[in-house]
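Lecture notes, structural biology module. Today: joint structure prediction for complexes of two components.
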Amino acid sequence: MAGAAPGGRAAVRRLVWPVMLPLAFLALWTVAVERHWVAEGIVPSPLQVAQSWYRWIFGTPTRSLSPYSGTWLAAVLYSSRRVLQGFLIAAAVGIPLGLFVGWNRLVARLVDPSIQLLRPVPITAWLPFAIAVFGIYDASALFLIGLGAFYPIVVNTTHGVRDTNLLLLRAARMMGAGERTILTRVVFRSALPSIFTGLRLGIGVAWTAVIVAEMIAVKSGLGYVLWDAYYVGRMDICVATMLSVGLLGFVSDRALQLLARLVLRWRTLEAHA
Amino acid sequence: MTDRPVIELADVWKTFDTGGRPVEALQGVSLSVARNEFAAILGPSGCGKSTLLNMVAGFEAPTRGAVRFDGEPVCTPGPRRAVVFQEPALFPWYTVLDNITFGLRTRGLAPAAYRARVETIVEQVGLRGFESHYPAELSGGMKQRVGIARVLVMDPDVLLMDEPFGSLDAQTRAVMQELLLAVWERHQQTVLFVTHDIEEALLLADSVSVMTARPGRIKTRITVALPRPRALEVTTSPFFNELKREVLALIREESGRAAIEGARRG
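The predicted structure, tokenised, for the full assembly:
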């Protein structure tokens, strides 16, 4: 009994502690709506949001009067596909470019100033330009998502490369490794933890960019639903969309973390040594 | 057999530019190492002995003078001059076996071509059973075994060792010294071994070059006429102690001079 109590208490702390704040918030939210502390008809109650979200996901698209009924998965797939495509483009460009910028002083001098000059331009500021050049099509969205995710990926890759231990470079050289071998087997491997940091930051930016792009530059996906629902006064759907995006961002970040843990197994060993 | 030395330093000077203030690391060092010789360089920390080794490895270039390997001036690092560093400098993302075969794979050799040789050396340095471990799972001594194995498998012309056992505890160091002696008996590679440990230098080497404190110069070269094969027990023999006294006297003279000069400067 005495032995079981501390273990049980630890489990309670692990399971109960994290949900306390969200539950308190939900309670406050419910009370605030019921007691009319907030503007009536504008802020929906948690229950309304849950019901609308449920219908949005599981409702039948054709029979229902609600235009959102059953369209959740389609919107999620549109947004996810754009995020994935933009993110992959950003990684495919950002990682190799970061490797070269970090490795070669000449490339750094050529490319780095341009990256640093363009980086402070907010991704939202690119919107008119993207629409003017690419039109109201997927290309606009992909451009914004790719550009947004590109910066953290390229910057973190560059840092990772520059942090490569000089002794490991010397070791590789004395074993006869040429530039290409060193770049792929030493520098890239050594920069991988930093690269993953860049990728995680990048996918976060990608979700931000996809919502912005879909609100204005394309006519599908969660961002489009969000803006559309706002216009027709469906704040319940707006809130459900916000929560959906949050959930997707969380899941994609966790997926990257999992991948990093698999690829960087040697690093977890180091942490436990 | 030619008498041409494998490693030759002719009047080598090295100046480092640290923040605008030039620091003389080496001052006119001349040294030659014959084929199959185990040459030790003994000196206090900061005397430039690692700099000397780095120049032979091709990591650094001399400010003045010539560093030659097999008659050719050294310009870049290469697999014929293998280095064992003080820090093991293993690739943490590779297993023990992948670390050991790095040089061979770099050369584009097929695993079949080197498997037997790698297995022999893994056995010799005592790494059997650890092939699939990662460096993070190894102790300092085991890591340094990998550092030695990965250069032995390349069959280099010379082994350059920069205080390879400097960061190990006394017991592990003794074990590793015996291991190196045993390995050297088998391979008889030319070795340039840098250390600040008098006993280590005398136990392992055929010749000990004693260096002065900064700026580094070679003060004397002592021949260690101890019979081979050697074991740790040799360090208790009268002859060994006589050699040790001789080297100690040289070093005391040197540190005395350095202390006086330091005081004068201060």
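Point to remember: Residues 117 and 153 of chain B are 7 Å apart (CA to CA).
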